[in-house]
Each structure stands twice: as C-alpha cells, then as structure tokens.
Amino acid sequence: MSFETPLPPYNASDPYATFVSSSCFDLLLIEMVPLASRLAAEFATKRGTVLNNVDGEEQRETAFRKLDSIGYRVGQGLVERLDLAPHKNHGADPTAIPTRFSRDRPRFNDALDMIKFLCKDMWTLIFRKQIDNLKTNHRGVYVLTDNTFRPLARMSMSSSSEAVARAQPFLWFPCGVIRGALASMGIIVTVQAETSELPAATFQIKTITPQL
Predict the structure, then answer these.
(1) What is the pTM of this model?
(2) Distance, CA of 41 to CA of 86 (rounded, Å)
C-alpha cells in the first residue's frame, strides 16, 4: 500500500501495487470515532439503558473496545500482508523474519528492533510520517511520541482542556494497531495513549510476555 502519487507506467499485474486516496483515508480515520460512538449509543438504547453518567461511561467503554478491536485487526493484517510474522515451520528461527516490505531488511533480533520498525516503516505506511521520538527503559517499556499526529492535526476547540478530552477517542484505533502488529510479530503488549497538547500524541507500550 502506498500514498505516493503513482507514476506511469502503472503495473496492474503487481498484486502489491495498491494505492489509497490519502484524503479519503484521513476522512475515514476521523469518521471512525463518531461511528463507534453512535453504535455504542444504539446498543445501549436497544438494551433499554437510561442515559446517565454511569451509562455514558459504559458507552465510552463500548466505543473504545470497538475502535481498539478494529485497530488490532488492521495491525495484524498489515504484518501478515508484509509477511513479517515469524515462520510457523518447526525448527525455524522465530527471529528470522523475512519481509516483502524490504528485501534487504536485516532480521529482527529483539523487541526493540520490532518497535523501531513500527515507529519508522509501519507508522509511515499508515500515517505518512515516522514517530518523532522513541524512549525505552530497556525493561519492556517503550514511549512513542508523534508531535503531529495526523488524526489530531485538523482538530481545534475553544479551550485546550476540551480539545484534549475530545481528542482521546481518536487515539484508541492506533493503540489497537500497535497491539495487533506487535502481537503478530510475537510480542503481547498493553498500550496507553494520551495527548496534552494538540496535535501531539504519546503512546506507552508495555510488554507482558518475555522478549524475543
């Protein structure tokens, strides 16, 4: 998949030459949040739930699970499409991970290599830019900072506190993408995201299984 402007001659026979309209993709990312919120509200209404503060939190949790699960499947699908998942053949080295994304890429030696790939190649593939900063304590915790996170780039509110509150649901989908991608590469993680000032976003990844 590529967001770059295709140049002739077009090779229609190439099964990996897929092009995506970047503006349509941006709109899709923006619309997913209100769609998940509407579905959560409809689900609560069908159950006959009375709308109050408690049920509002329940709807928020339902929307979170929906967006996170969609992102998880997208992350898994990208890794499978790029052929980055460890081989399932018995006796194969689980760290010897080939990739159609780059034939010259060296194999991943540890979790940090996978996180770096996520920050550079996969983030560029999805959001058209690399993660701006990566920090780790080398004990299974990684902090990724995107100073201009695309889904938040066009968001503005009358107050910064309102903007931060409204922006939080737009971080749920990429959290799922991170979890799904790393799970397919053999690392189970938890991901938390936050924003303190638009359009920056911070993602904290914690591994919950032994690193490769």
Answers:
(1) 0.75
(2) 40
